[in-house]
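Re: beginner question about structure tokens

> Can someone show what the tokenized structure looks like for a real chain? I only ever see the sequence side.

Sure, here's an example I had lying around. Input first:
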Amino acid sequence: MNTLTMTSKSLSITANMFVDGGPLFMTLILICLLASLFFLVRGFANVKKSLEISNKMLKLASDASLLGLVMGFLASIIGLITAFDSVEAMGDPDPSIFAGGLKISLLTASFGLFTFVVARIGIIILRMMSNTNDK
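And the corresponding structure tokens:
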């Protein structure tokens, strides 16, 4: 029973982080992550059948992961600009308000990096499998 409660709390925290990071950019980065995973799974499925399709899926997964990374940093920069605009409007802000704004602006960059790293690990494994089947 305690495990179920802890899982529920962790899901709630994750959902809050997703919303806090900005639903638009976080959703776009999630789509990039899902696209990368789709292309990787399709690439793994075609490693033994067709090396050409597998390599095409590898390139698409690479592009989707890079797009997720760049979108994360773009959203982070937009969030930082918004935070600095708020600081400018307030005049002399409380440091805790500023720190909270920085934390929120870094959520998208973190999610973009996560997307990139997960896809990159899959890409490396798929390349190794492609090279062993190529010989």
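Each token stands for a local structural state, so reading them left to right follows the chain. The mean pLDDT is 84.
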